[in-house]
Amino acid sequence: MWNRRGFLKKSVLSSMATLLGAEIVFAKNLPPKTLPLAFQPAEDILPGKHPDLIILNNRPWNVEAPPHLLNDAVTPGDKMFIRNNGIPPEGVDINQWTLTIEGEAALSSKSYTLKELKEKFEHHTYQLSLECGGNGRAGFYPPASGNQWTEGAVSCGEWTGVRLKDVLMDAGIGENAVYIGYYGKDTHISGDASKNPISRGVPIEKALEDESLIAWSLNGEDIPIMNGYPLRLVFGGWPASCSGKWLEKIVIRDKVHDGEKMTGTSYRVPKYPVQPGTKVPEEDFEIIESMPVKSLITSPKSGAMLALGKNLEVKGHAWAGDLEVSKLQLSIDFGATWHEANLESPVNRLAWQHWNAELSFPKEGYYEIWAKATDSKGVSQPMVIPGWNPKGYLNNACHRIAVKITAS
Amino acid sequence: MKKGLSLFFAIGIWLFSQCKTVQNSTNQNVSDEKDPESGLMLDQNLMLVKSQCTACHSAKLITMNRFTRTGWKEKIVWMQKTQNLWDLGESEPAVLDYLEKYYSPEPQASRRKNLEDIEWYKLED
Q: Which of A99, A255, A323, B106 has a 20 to 30 Å separation from A181 between CA atoms?
């Protein structure tokens, strides 16, 4: 690792050597562990994940899927995006893992082992769409801060677990309950053990929905380590940061949960539309709840060339937060005309919906295929980037791919 | 771990003072090359930035973002307020110089430009 990085040897080592007052002999044989953290070469490999995922950050891991990788009806674990705020726990022992329910508005404090959770409560399986609140951030200008997600911080896996409401009711929900908050076993990237990387949650009404799960399984298997193994919350249709990973504690709060990244500007947008670049006072932000209507073209992969006269089968998914998608339209002329695609009903509430269409092209040339979904309240995706907001959330602009029609 | 970080910080400062002398003496020019290890742009302030900014997260969080100097300063203040980032002390201006020089917003490449130079007026009926 040392010696394939010429620069490291030349400049870091020579300055390190200078300050140590000596040459580092056999420096190229030093194991990477002996390097100061900042000079350690990046680990580019993520076990259990598809090699074509796009790595935005490797410390902490933030990884998204190119749209064509999301073509499966149910997202496989190896293609599911990762948004880590901290460092996942290592050496998880599922026999020692417990989940505690407590808080000002809990009638009792209760702890369950994984085994107890599985034995005591009824199991439920749902396909639930999870999208990062910052998916699409890269589209905003002036640039918004954070991981520059493009299209693929979204998934719809089949999650199995117990209903959050069953467990909350077992501990007892006080009449003063307003919100639930989670705590996970991941640690802050500064190494400060007393600091939570993230501790968010949802209003009690969302927590009590049938589809709100405490899950231990994705697509019939253990949850991938980076996606929360061995236990996590899953709230379909809301910013995925609500769905706490490596879950060890849930608090029933008598006020809006105030954990890490619930407050300030995190996962919040201005209460009113703002001019791009505006400095918005913190008290004018509100928490993001249901995600807006959106869709992806997952087949073909962008860049397809085909001969004139051939029809093109186009496929993808659409989702709309707490709502359903009622219509999916495609355009090959930048939105001048639209064609309606076949749209399937969701397998269950909060699952993404599949759509497909067959398109034909009038002549040779360059085309863009644009997809536009409309939700059950008649609200559609914007064709341009939607309202700018300081942290770059909720970009649900139409997805588009490029296609070239060549001489037959 | 906290101790580890302050030690790290100390090494950073130390490295910085070294780099400055080393690189001033070799009269290194500005380049548009990247440090292959971090992906950050090569510069006389590179070592300083690496030591101050890559202890917690990778440099990718820097290289994928674009802010004005004020914007970078705000990020630093935010990390100090909420994420345990230390006081950068005397090295802050040099860190900001570096961030501003290489990671400022580029001209807008967008599906549609934002409206600019708007002259606000009250519509009378």
A: A323
Strands (E), A206-311: 213-218, 221-222, 232-234, 247-253, 268-270, 285-287, 294-299, 304-307
Instruction: Say yes or no for a CB contact (<8 Å) between B114 and A388.
Output: yes
Which of A60, A141, A193 shows the shortest C-beta gap to B110?
A141
Phi, psi of A256 (to 5 degrees): -60, 130
Fold assignment, A294-406: Immunoglobulin-like (2.60.40)
**Does any CB of chain A come closer than 8 Å to the CB of residue B114?**
yes
Give A397's contacts in chain B (Cβ within 8 Å): 111
- Decide if B80 touches A, using CB distance below 8 A: no
For residue A273, give the 3-state DSSP assignment.
coil
CB of A207 within 8 A of CB of A182? Answer: no
Is it the case that residue A52 has pLDDT exceeding 80? yes
CATH of A98-287, one of 3.90.1280.20, 3.20.20.80, 3.40.120.10, 3.90.420.10: 3.90.420.10
Domain locations along chain A: 1-40, 98-287, 294-406
- Rounded to two decimals, the ipTM of the complex is 0.71
Closest by alpha carbon to A46, among A75, A85, A71, A82?
A82
Domain count, chain B: 1
